[in-house]
Amino acid sequence: MTTVHDPTEAIRELLEQQFRAHTERLTELTLYSRQPDRGGYDPDTLRALMETARKGIADTAQALRRMSDGTYGRCEQCGDTIPTARLEILPWARFCVPCQRRHQD
Ligand SMILES: [Zn+2]
Questions:
Q1: Domain residue spans in the chain?
Q2: What's the gap in Å between 57 CA and the centre of ligand 1?
Q3: pLDDT in tens, 42-58
């Protein structure tokens, strides 16, 4: 039992957990979409939920890939380090806060 707290390791676990959760969600929604009553969802809601799950899978998979190639935690725009506090809230963040803002404009 180690007492050393490695934030990156905690974030990786979180990402893996979220990746699995989104994948399971998408599998479940895909099954619903093939049922005549779509699991009780209206088509637009179901489509939106599937889109969210797909985006979640893509975001978390990308973040995990950046972790394995060593570019995780670096802003893709300016190359600055993304603060750990931000990554703990938004582990799939690809940009630092200023770049993210510019990105959304
Ligand atoms: Zn940046």
A1: 7-104
A2: 23
A3: 999 999 999 999 999 99
